[in-house]
């Protein structure tokens, strides 16, 4: 199944850097999201961010607990994020953590693509299966 829709972000809370050395900083941020459409849910995202002296080169890893409904089924699941920007060339992988789904979403597997439009709006495309 493939579902898609917009999402909003809020509550970007950056903590003081965990470590800074030679122009490279490791930081931690939490934020919230509200998904709309077939995924009607809220989430909290916990990010660890790497910034470098090269503005176009940075990375983040994150875990995100999503709670709500997916195609009318209620429960929660965890998404794992890995992203890099290598002098502007970007890579992003967002996948459901195996066996992290609860409730009517038990057995959920899938990958999510996050898109940011030129106007700054966010959307998702979620390609998933529901086993069992």
Briefly characterize the structure.
This protein is 0% helix and 71% strand.
Based on the model shown, name its key terms.
single chain; 132 residues; mainly beta; 9-stranded antiparallel sheet; 9 strands; elongated
Tell me about this structure.
Strands 1, 2, 3, 4, 5, 6, 7, 8 and 9 form a nine-stranded antiparallel sheet that branches. Strand 8 (108-116) and strand 9 form a beta hairpin. 0% of the residues lie in helices and 71% in strands. The chain has strands at residues 2-14, 19-21, 24-35, 39-51, 58-70, 73-86, 89-96, 108-116, 122-130. It has no helices and nine strands.
Protein topology:
Blueprint: E1 2-14, E2 19-21, E3 24-35, E4 39-51, E5 58-70, E6 73-86, E7 89-96, E8 108-116, E9 122-130
Antiparallel strand pairs: 1-3, 1-9, 2-3, 3-4, 4-5, 5-6, 6-7, 8-9
- Contiguous runs where pLDDT drops below 50 for at least 5 residues: none
Note the overall shape: elongated
Q: Beta-sheet strand percentage? A: over 45%
The Rg value, from CA coordinates, equals: 16 Å
Instruction: Tell me, rounded to a whole number, the average pLDDT.
Output: 96
* Secondary structural class: mainly beta
Total strand count, please? 9
Distance between the termini: 15 Å
Instruction: Give the H and E element order.
Output: EEEEEEEEE
The major beta sheet can be summarized as:
9 strands, antiparallel
Count of helical regions: 0
């Amino acid at each position: 199944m493939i579902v898609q829709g917009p999402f909003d972000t809020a509550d970007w809370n950056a903590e003081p850097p965990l470590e800074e050395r030679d122009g490279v900083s490791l930081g931690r941020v939490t934020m919230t999201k509200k998904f709309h459409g077939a995924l009607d849910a809220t989430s909290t995202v916990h990010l660890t961010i790497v910034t470098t002296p090269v503005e176009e080169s940075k990375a983040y890893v994150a875990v995100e607990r999503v709670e709500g409904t997916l195609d009318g089924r209620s429960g929660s699941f965890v998404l794992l994020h890995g992203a890099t920007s290598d002098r502007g060339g970007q890579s992003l992988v967002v996948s459901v953590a195996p066996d992290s789904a609860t409730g009517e979403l038990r057995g959920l597997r899938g990958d999510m693509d996050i898109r940011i439009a030129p106007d700054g709006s966010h959307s998702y495309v979620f390609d998933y299966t529901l086993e069992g």
